[in-house]
Amino acid sequence: MNWDFTIAPLLPWPFLAALLAAGLVFIVITVMTRGRGWLLRSLALALLLLALVNPSLRNEDRENLSDIAIAVVDHSRSQSFGDRTERTERALTDLKQAVARLGNTELRVVSVTSNVSAENDGTRLFSALNEALSEVPPERFAGAVFITDGQVHDVPTDMTRLGVNAPLHGLITGSRKEIDRRIVIEQSPRFGIVGKEQTVRFRVDETGNTPGPIGVTIRANNGEEQNIEVQAGQSVSLPVLVDHGGQNITEIIADPLPGEITEQNNRAISIIEGIRDRLRVLLVSGEPHPGERTWRNLLKADASVDLVHFTILRPPEKQDGTPIKELSLIAFPTRELFVEKLDEFDLIIFDRYQRRGILPMMYLANIADYVKRGGAVLIAAGPDFAAEDGLYNTPLNAVLQVVPSGQVLEGGFKPHVTERGQRHPVTRGLPGAEGATPNWGRWFRLVDADAEAGEVVMSGLDDKPLLVLSREEQGRLALLLSDHGWLWARGFEGGGPQTELLRRLAHWLMKEPDLEEEYLSGKQDNDSIQIERRTMADTTDPVTVTLPSGTTKQVELHQVTPGVWRANLPVTEPGIHRLTDGKLTAAVAIGSADPKETADPVATDAKLAPAARASGGGLYWLEDYSSLPRIVKADAGRQMAGSGWLAFKANDAHRVRAVHELPLFSTLGALALLLMAFAAMWYREGR
């Protein structure tokens, strides 16, 4: 039974106070004047005031509520190191049993895993605690226990704003004797200009090891390796050449430390996205023709293109009496272009060029060598290519894999994307190529030729090769066997995708990753990796994914369009995921490329100490106990932690199921008593 005395005044307190004051004055005057019946008057006044105050006795029927404790269990990536997982599971089991023995206490368990997003990287135990507390009434919260290695990355900076009225305890699963070696990337540019060097700065940190030289392997993007020695904590600047567009990956690997807690953080990668500052193009036009202006306009329209245009306006055999000094206002620097600065060009385009003695054979041999060294050449051929003095009959034929028959085919035709072209990135999905008949204008001339090598990605009249792409040692060459592409640019019969085709050709020739035929890539898509494999083959091999933890998964790819195979792999670990199909490799950074989970995996109690101290809780290393510290309950205001024991707060919370109230002056008996007091007063006054 829970009896309480309560009052519920029938009149406002100021009125009752005034009535009491007036009554006391009247009684005092009566006493001082020796009036009769002052005692009965006082009794009547007191009974009247008690009736107006309306006192009552209340009895509440209460149901005791259990106290709620919360166990926040760290299942992040760093908890898999050493024997932390085993200690965590054992501690949770023992904690459940200990709380069950306390009585009137409920334990709620919250699991926390590593986040995969860069914004929420790391172990966030307090975020999980706050979410759990949103469902717990504050008057029932008895405390929380963190089962973790101590590497917590969301500890509040202001402990006064924790917003908890119960102790926070920590059970540390690691060991004080742990050692570790790790690579820390201090500086890694996100972007770099192709052909330029960028500086990556890193250091090797160690915990619990005697200082000494550390062997480090630097693995470049092209597979080359170099070995260096560094000292722990020493910053090392590493020059990295950005040799192509797209991802340039440099891997830094430190030698393993015997007995260290994990070797996963002994390696790190730097990913620099290569971008081209300016595209330097040399356009050589053999003679004025309708398509020449189209080529020039297309190239000049791109602000990222530096164009050098060399046009032969007057063939040497032309004799019209023009004075030599008037043939050219400025001598064209052919030697400078084709000998001294040839390698500075990203792309050379020959537009209807015919051998007329303007460029010596040595210059054309230089261009063939330029292709073999990694250069790019695009030949837009017309009738000149089929002639005896065409480019095929020059030193350039060392890289030309297309043999002209000497004939030029005339007649209207619509360029078609071949079956191989439907798989090739240059021509796959060209606007207007859908359906059996392309939705673009016709061309009317084609140079007859046989492609001995390379990929025929477009065909023309009578299915003859129209666009041939080939690789020549380290370089690439594209041959367009028609000079009527300008009809698309002029909008003839609706035009066609000449601008898009030229853009793709240029990017393929310059080895841009987005236009590679054989390419493996991956990117983060929410909580999964989208794996893409481009290939010209009919099938593709499964992709093996190596997770940051070192485990591997095999993923089967499915064709989504000719030449493109994809698959999605759900991921739960932040960090670097490495992909390979046995031929190609790729890397994907999920979340942060240098996740907090492996940045410093050594167990510690320092990060949780401020929160435990501010809330009255304690921190305990599980390696010091065979099971757990002794767990008890303590009343509010008492000490909640000590050597070898921890406490949850006893709240004595309850729920009122029913209320029984007994008014003391609202009954007939109370009214009769009041009337009797007034009657006695009047009787005494009447005598």
Q: In this structure, how is the largest beta sheet organized?
A: 8 strands, mixed
Mean pLDDT: 83
Radius of gyration based on Cα positions:
44 Å
Spatial order of the strands forming the largest sheet: 16-15-17-18-24-23-22-20
The total beta strand count reads 37
Structural class: alpha/beta
- Poorly predicted runs: none
Distance between the termini: 49 Å
Q: What does the oligomeric state look like here? A: single chain
Count the DSSP helices: 13
What does this structure look like?
The structure is a single chain. With 687 residues, the protein is α/β, with parallel strands linked by helices. Helices cover 21% and strands 35% of the residues. The protein has 13 helices and 37 strands. Helix 1 (13-32) packs antiparallel against helix 2. It is elongated, with a radius of gyration of 44 Å.
Describe what is shown at a glance:
The chain is an alpha/beta fold. Helix content is 21%, strand content 35%. The longest helix has 20 residues, at 13-32.
